[in-house]
Amino acid sequence: MEKDARPNWDSPMQFVLACVSYAVGLGNVWRFPYLCQMHGGGGFLIPYFIMLLVEGVPLFYMELAIGQKMRLGSIGAWTAISPYLGGVGLASVVTSLYLCLYYNIINAWSFWYLFHSFQSVLPWAVCPINANRTAPIEECERASPTQYFFYRETLNISSTIEENGGIHTGQALCFLLTWVITYLCVVRGVQSTGKVVYFTATFPYVVLFIYLIRGFTLHGAVNGVKYMFTPKMDQLANPTTWINAATQIFFSLGLGFGSLIAFSSYNQYNNNFERQAITVSLINSGTSIFASIVTFAIYGFKATINYENCLERTRILLLNTFNLAEDTINMDNVFEWIEKLNATYPEQFNEIANDTGNCDLEKELATAVEGPGLAFIVYSEAITNMPLSQLWSVLYFIMLLLLGVGSMLGNITAIITPLQDFKAASRISSELFNGLVCLFCLLLGLGFTTTSGNYWFTIFNDYGATFSLLFIVLIEVITVSYIYGIKRFEKDIEDMLGHRPNWYWKIMWVAISPLLLIVLFVFYIVNYIMGGTPTYQAWDKEEGKSVLTEYPVFGQVFIALLLVSSVSCVPLTALYVFCRKRKHGKAHKQQHALNAVSA
Amino acid sequence: MLDKILFLLCLASALADERCMPDTPHGFQVRLSIKTALGDEAYVWNENEMFLFRASLAFAMRNHMNGQQFEVSNIIVCNETMRVSFWFIVTSPLDTSQLIDQENVEAAIRQSRNRINSAFLLTDKTLEFVDILPTLATLYTHPTPPWLIVFGVVMGAVGAGIIIMLVSSVVQKKRKTNGKPQDKDDDEETRVKTVENGDAHDGVHNMSFSEDERFTKM
């Protein structure tokens, strides 16, 4: 009995830290601040918290309950709940697989940037010089040094998704390293993961705290924080705000991937997951807000620096054109002088009129970026302006790495746990099995290190897990509430915790959360249909900026495949089980008939 | 006689002044940003500084065109402004009516740019020769890129970690198999027990217990 016992977390603390490490990921750092900025600053917190209470915590609670009760990965757990809906677990595994394939490439980029921080001059601070040594490289001049470093030296990106090139060896090496580290963290399953999460869950907070102090002492940081927190309440009337709040809560908590079910399946039967669910959800949201304060301090700093650089350029232009002494114009009276000179020398001023007067702090603050662009371009630009930039760069990318690896642990566990529940897999040792899964994902993921890899990454990022998750969690909630029965679920929870769930949870599971999910689901479909041909941002080398391009036919087909492949697991499995039961039923009936005859 | 010489000199100098003018095809504009570069320690631009400039330009011309003895008088300056910008042209030492062409002047300045800059405690940006692009210093290219070194260190550490983990689990398993022959009898008994109760880790069986509840129409 002992050798087949399910491995357990060493303590409930490990479980909580694993959930925190999984839920607190890159999205908290690069998606939430963007949403906050787009939807009215401090006012966005209202829909965010409402959605957290109405949708986030109940669904999180539900997934933990399922895992802890069934003590199986997602496939086994859902098969146990209802044999026809085992496909939900399979869909979770497929979605997790897609996520695993592309998520680690972000960690590879973090490693690349981290390793390049160990230089006296950060490589993304200055443009490299061209062959003639007369000027910086053209592409770098038109864009900016940080963009050039990201698109050219890190990705070596091609101009469209159709153009393909070879694998970027540096990228591939970093990618290999991230998979090796992931393997090291999961090699012994929960035993090894449980120890790693002590570090991956806590150290990012240390870095965020250090950055908070650093951020607030930066010149101009207060501008950014003020801008973020001034609530623009009119945004609350916009339905997109509420939809985005709901989607952000949903994806930020990592529901539907099966990771939460996998993690809680290693719990002791009587573990108090109710308190843990509330704790982890609150920690996750709190981290989002904390991270966005830091982000906005950095934004404010960057915007102020850009604004002051713009003023300086204008000042020099005025001095040079009108041959005034150097100390006549300083930063404070640039605008006065512009008016004065425009009045006194109108013709001369007209020649340079285009380059003056377009320095605007509000405009700089309003440029909102999300996703890898925020993390690798905007943030690294801000870091180059800080004194001791190498130190800040190292700290920042270590934090990104820990956030990313922490989430990866959950993703990989979501694949390994359900597959290891099958008898076929338990014959191989768990180390070998985990190694095979990591190797498989590594080999497939190498495609993202090619020159068009970033465009494929965007496809996976935008379509691989968004729609299917909504579908999966909707089916989950409906299954638990109606097919399995809310009364049975209540009894199970009472069995584990010792008390029945509050009426609040029941209302959420039965009515409000499914309704909300249906609304989100419909909204996604409508958005997708009305959006026309899906587009992506292609990097134009000549212009030095991103250009909106439509996906070619094979790209659109691939997107459709991605969406269909995970969603179709549910009906297909139901059909398969139905057919098998009918065959078994027929065979049983024949057996009974024979027995009756022989008896 | 003296009058004639005086007249000719004035004419000559007037001619020279006429050749030096803004947008002249033979010279360059220079712009100095002393206060930007030196802040509080900025020196005042006066005639002496101008003399130093002309002298350093003459030095640059001498360096570039070997053999020709350029003097300060060969560097003619005009259109000085408050910005501290002015135009200059260079005359040939052998014949003051001849101007040195732009390419030579540019090449000479390029060659001795550093020396001219340091004479004034300025840099390529703050002592600007308009239209002469400074030769940018390339960053030091390391023989082995430093990132590869850090990567090697981390990869080595992680690889060592994995090998240790794998070896320790193999060793643990060997220890278990060594202790196993003693427990074999106990194992058989427990195995029988587990078969009786149904598969221990197949949760479906547990659930089928409650599932029957549903289907028994009693």
Automatic annotation (TrEMBL), chain A:
This is Transporter. One of its GO terms (molecular function) is proline:sodium symporter activity. The chain crosses the membrane at residues 12-32, 44-62, 83-105, 165-186, 198-222, 242-266, 278-299, 394-416, 436-457, 463-486, 507-531, 551-579. Na(+) binds at A23, V24, N28, S252, N284, L403, S407. InterPro entries: Na/ntran_symport, Neutral_aa_SLC6, SNS_sf. Keywords: Glycoprotein, Membrane, Metal-binding, Sodium, Symport, Transmembrane, Transmembrane helix, Transport. One of its GO terms (biological process) is L-proline import across plasma membrane. It is a multi-pass membrane protein. It comes from the Eukaryota.
TrEMBL record, chain B:
Coiled coil: none annotated. Keywords: Cell membrane, Glycoprotein, Membrane, Phosphoprotein, Signal, Transmembrane, Transmembrane helix. Residues 24-218 form the Collectrin-like domain. The chain crosses the membrane at residues 147-171. One of its GO terms (cellular component) is extracellular exosome. Its main location: membrane. It is a single-pass type I membrane protein. GO terms for biological process: positive regulation of amino acid transport. The keyword Amino-acid biosynthesis does not apply. The keyword Transmembrane helix applies. Residues 175-218 are annotated as: Disordered. This is Collectrin-like domain-containing protein. It comes from Amphiprion ocellaris (Clown anemonefish).
